[in-house]
Amino acid sequence: DAKTTQPTSMDCAEGRAANLPCNHSTISGNEYIHWYRQIHSQGPQYVIHGLKNNETNAMASLIITEDRNSSVLILPHATLRDTAVYYCIVRVARWDRWGCTCAISPWWQVRRRVAFI
């Protein structure tokens, strides 16, 4: 499994974009980059994931470098409701019985985390 490193905390002005970096220099070709967040007193919540291409959803964007050694989670208009611990996780995808690739990404196997304040 690839190890991930992230800053231990980051600050962002409300209404501005928050850029949360993650380094994963030991990533292999079939490992996905996942981001989860955990708001105080709640369980982890999926944010976004990607393999090689940049991804965007309603909550965030994931920018992956061409060599896949690092990535950045972008929250385009951060608010106080985005205050959470953000987890960057790298895991291999598995095939389920329907032929879909389903990434196995247990949040508790995170090496480091980012507190977004």
From TrEMBL:
PROSITE patterns according to UniProt: IG_LIKE (PS50835)
GO BP annotations, alphabetical order: adaptive immune response; response to bacterium
Recorded protein name is Ig-like domain-containing protein
Localization, per the record, is: Cell membrane
Cite the Pfam families for this sequence: V-set
Gene3D superfamilies documented for this protein: Immunoglobulins
Instruction: Enumerate the PANTHER family for this protein.
Output: T CELL RECEPTOR ALPHA VARIABLE 26-1, T-CELL RECEPTOR ALPHA CHAIN V REGION-RELATED
Instruction: Cite the InterPro entries for this sequence.
Output: Ig-like_dom, Ig-like_dom_sf, Ig-like_fold, Ig_sub, Ig_V-set, TCR_complex_component
Taxonomic classification: Eukaryota, Metazoa, Chordata, Craniata, Vertebrata
Q: Which residues form the Ig-like domain?
A: 1-90
Going by the UniProt record, its keywords in alphabetical order are: Adaptive immunity, Cell membrane, Disulfide bond, Glycoprotein, Immunity, Membrane, Signal
Name a single GO cellular component.
Answer: plasma membrane
